[in-house]
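Open question from group meeting: does this chain pack into something compact, or does most of it stay loose? Before anyone orders reagents, we agreed to write out a predicted structure and look at it together. Recording both the input and the output here so the notebook holds the full record.
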Amino acid sequence: MSPIAEAVPRRVALVWLPPMKLIEFSVKSELYAQGLRAAGVETVTVCLEGAEPGYSLPTVATTRARLVDPAFWRVVGCDSAVVTTWHHFTDVLLALRETGVRTVAVAESDGLQISIRGHPWPTFRYMTYTQPTWRGKLGAAKHWLQRYLCRGGAESRELIANALAADVQTLAGYGPLDEFRRLLVRLKAHELPRLEYLPYPVRPAFCSHTVAIERPKRLVAVGRWDAAQKNTQLLDRSLRRLTAARAGWEAVVVGPGAPERMRELVRTHPHIQAIGPQPPDRVRELMGSSRALLITSRWESGPIVASEMLALGGTVVG
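Structure tokens returned:
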């Protein structure tokens, strides 16, 4: 067998380790499986017990203890694994390495939200933003200080070890890659891991749909508006100013929490709609018939909706 043929994986494990169901995450593992199968590669989805309900592909559901046992991975029989790590699960990556499995670790952050010593102020802001009450914010501030004083150095070493445990670590943007690389240098990593750009997959329907040239004067915003990350306050202010300055424009806000968070805006601006979660075909229809997508997030690793809008020929405004 030639070296090139040996480099092509025959069976890839898609490994899901975060504590949530597969169907609840916006990045769909099924899309990775479809793309790999189209390239002639067999896949198997491996997850923690309880993460598989509703998932459309066969899974190997197991316990946390078995995931760190090299014998388990020998039974799975994969030669490569794509592991969603979010900069954690170093022990699982090392177990895969011991078995001889090549690994791609799908990370999430450029470090601005996770490195206490590397980015003190951004991590403080991130931890307090996510708390809805002042009591919660004070508790988060206390926790941040304890981590900084007592755990900061150990966390930095753990972050470096995690990055080096995989054959390749990926982030969903070139900017985040450069930032994370600088962070590792700042934290005095003795060597740098292989870091690569890997965008999150987009549903094929968004890539094959006809691109509309003539579009109505419509803006669209798609997101989980019940999450502090998405910043509904900024979206509200932006839509008020945009629609006041541009006569004849309308806007549609789509996603969980939109009707509740945008109720007052919709009441006073009849040309603005706010609707809850929609099926992918309906989201594609709305985005494909709008001129621009608004993203008001306080932080994002690689917004899928931005790639979807670009695939549909629209404009993205951050």
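Observations to bring back to the group:
The radius of gyration is 22 Å.
The mean pLDDT is 92.
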